[in-house]
Amino acid sequence: MPARRTITAFLVGGRLRSDTLTATDTWALRTWASLYVDVAFVCPSGCSVRGLSAADPALAAAGRALIAAAGRTVVLAERTRIGRNDPARFAALSDVSLFITDHRPSDAEAAAMEAEGARFRRV
Questions:
Q1: Is 30 a member of any domain?
Q2: Are strands 23-24 and 15-16 parallel, antiparallel or unpaired?
Q3: Residues whose CB falls within 8 Å of the CB of residue 83, separated by 6 or more in sequence, listed in order
Q4: DSSP for residue 105
Q5: pLDDT tens, 33-74?
Q6: Global pTM value
């Protein structure tokens, strides 16, 4: 990234979770609340017609804060995340600009998510 002068990267402090490498807790939430980012890339553990979800409330709070700071939100989700609901919901599908995934969901799941505003790009 140092060669890309048009990109600014921020490192957010907080408790770094060893399982997800996500910065969480008060320090991270305070930092996100003080920033505006053009595009947020989030990787939820679950995304379905019910929205984006995480396995832990601290992860959900971090995701919620990041999305609130963003002008646009892009979800990066591999096939096992689509159609899954974890305990801590942190965003509605209407909060997401684009889903990038390796596999299009089933027709029924895709139709339900697209009715809520989801757009998919398969890579």
A1: no
A2: antiparallel
A3: 47, 48, 105, 106, 109
A4: P
A5: 998 989 999 999 999 999 999 999 999 999 999 999 999 999
A6: 0.84
